[in-house]
Amino acid sequence: MNDPNTSPKTPEGNKKPAPEEKDLLERLESRFNRHKNDKLMMWLKNTSGRYLLNKLRSRTS
Amino acid sequence: MKARKTFLKLIERMEELPTLPSSISKIFQVLDDPNSSAKDVSQVISQDQSLVVRVLKIVNSPFYGFPRRIESIDHAVVLLGYRPLRDMILVTSLFREANIKGDKRSLDRVRFWRHAVGVGVAAQTIAQHIGARQENSAFIAGLLHDIGKVFLDAFLHQEYIEVVSLARQKNLLLYEAEEEVLGANHTDFGHWLADAWNLPLNLTDSVAYHHQPSQSKEHYNLTCLVHMGDILTRALEVGDGGDNTIPAIDRHAWAFLNLTPELFKGIITEFDENLVGTDFLID
């Protein structure tokens, strides 16, 4: 469930994220902060985060 | 529910209490009467012109997707059926009643309604995916689940500004901040309202227990759907429930609904698609 492949990633590995993506990643950290030790919630954070990042990228590309 | 005394003190602080408009109560009497005909229903609805406009707007929305434009209330009553019509009138009327005194220091109404619609659509989408027979109830229950928040904001506005501010400062869930400031939370108040308005028990349960689904004895399935719908809506940042954090998934609810990570990924995509065409509820 704690699949590292589902973690929201910045585009092209180490490249700096765009400001909107950085905002989104920060919001995710803050919103899920209380669930750091909860595997199911961390899975939800990664899965929904990846979905939102993809949506953001498809809007801005 | 919180200690009864604390809760009654909260109610006493309100200068006036929220009531259902009398025209709506009258319509419900007719809709709930097994001897009433479609003609009786359309007659009583037709006495309230703003309601006529709302009902026609709803049945002609993409959400229902009827192939031809519905021009009359008679036709709308026959097409929708009594129960969905009753639920839809209830929701739009409550939204209107509570749509007072909102401002950006407390609940931003447009973003809040977007959250409520999101939870309705999410609960319905989950119900469809797991083959539950409660798709329509799930939608309405999701729409109504936070009704306690808007009425607390409308009737104890200054204190509610403090609630929202505290939740934002300390990154609390709104119900945690409500308990700190008011001594009771929106599920307590929503439960009280739903009882006072004699709402159907399945809706009352999901209003009262969406944060603790295990406390719902009679309508556990529906309450679990709303609980998961709320979390999904927050995770996908649809609207704003008034706080900036996310409640934990109740493991029993997750297991009871037979959810799996794989299934949930499909639900996320479909939920996003199902949200299209629901803007008519926000207007």
Description:
Chain A has helices at residues 19-31, 39-60. Chain A is elongated, with a radius of gyration of 12 Å. Chain A has 61 residues and is mainly α. The longest helix of chain A is centred in the last third of the chain and has 22 residues, at 39-60. Chain A is 57% helix and 0% strand. Chain B has 283 residues and is mainly α. Chain B has helices at 4-12, 22-32, 38-46, 49-59, 73-80, 82-97, 109-130, 135-144, 147-155, 157-170, 174-182, 186-196, 201-209, 220-235, 251-256, 261-274. The two termini of chain B are 34 Å apart. At the A-B interface, helix 1 and helix 2 of A face helix 14 and helix 16 of B.
The helicity of chain A comes to: 55-70%
- Which structural class best describes the helix and strand composition of chain A? mainly alpha
Low-confidence runs of at least 5 consecutive residues of chain A: none
**Range of helix content of chain B:** 55-70%
Unreliable spans of chain B are none
The quaternary state of the protein chains shown equals heterodimer
Task: Based on Cα principal axes, name the global outline of chain A.
Answer: elongated
Tally of contiguous helical segments of chain B: 16
Round the mean pLDDT of chain A to the nearest integer and report it.
83
Ends distance of chain B: 34 Å
In angstroms, what is the radius of gyration of chain B?
19 Å
Supply the number of helical segments of chain A: 2
